Amino acid sequence: MGSEQAEPPPFAISADRIFDGYRWHNHALILIAGGIVQSITSRDESASRWSTEVMPPGTILAPGFIDLQVNGGGGILLNDQPTPDAMRAIAQAHRRYGTTSCLPTLISDTRAKAIVAIAAAKSVAGGDGILGLHLEGPFISPRRPGIHPGDYIATATMEDLDWLGELSAVGSSMVTLAPECVPARFVKTLATSGIRCSVGHSEATADTLTAAVDEGLSGVTHLFNAMPAMSAREPGIVGVALTDDRLTAGIIVDGIHVDPVVVRAAFSAKNPNNIALVSDAMPTVGTEQDHFELMGRQIQLRDGRLVCENGTLAGAHLNLASAVKNAATFGGMFLDEALRAASLVPARFLGIERHRGTLVAGAQGDIVALTPNLEVLTTWVAGNRPQSVPNPERG
Fold it and tell me: Quick one: signal sequence residues (predicted)?
């Protein structure tokens, strides 16, 4: 397991506004003991035994953000270093932006690399802000590769369940796949074992996707991107995603991957309790660097866009604090919906909402403090302000 800090003594945090994942509390205190939320109470009812930290006027406290799709950060790409130290460093790079837990994400690569990543995630899942692992590929459509290297995209066989099934022992993990590229019962086998399955980089028809949902597929990876557009007679992935409440749709709200008008349309069409903000972040997040190499391809940061030589988007230069702010401004979401989309919704998708994604009694004390302008002031993880972890050497 990952390294843990000593348990802090009981304490309270006072703020003008506290959002617990479900409702607002004004001029309140959140009480934490043993790293666990005990209650949220009014300032007038605070007991003298609670050492209280008073946040600046206007501060908002909310559940720490949970990012389901983090390819990299802090100058590190998981595909380059699928190790425990790299996963810790990526999570640490995103913590300053309010993300208290995440799924490090490996895009399509060799089977050997995926197996190494699974083993690494197994050793750290549950600590250091790492919930599990997200394998985005390799069982995706060669017609919708995005930035995924075509040489590593594969059609699944039932034998692949032998190694892929190891994810069931890795905390809360997920697989992005194209339902049309896997055999019958493939999704059902994964979902039954506790692995979340999500459609992405796919050209599945509405019927094919609905059949996969019936088998247990429950997510949509970066809605609108790397999938066909919805049309009058071909609803496709987008149509099913917007109308089937069994699906939690991740969406990249950076103003680049999805036009703001389309973002607002999605938020209007789909139950906001089934929309999760994701970063799809790359190594540039948390650094000053404007380029990196992705499996032999040069990626440049230009006007906020990460693109390869031919202009294909290569992940995002985005963090969840910015995604929340964007969702609440040009996305047209209410603030509570935007905060929930970055916390409770992804927690519920992973089945961990009793302990993460909320600030109700019994939940882990993962908290983000925001200014009225939604800038991150600080975070707590299990009641601790996390200490930095060293970056592994970059090759």
Answer: none
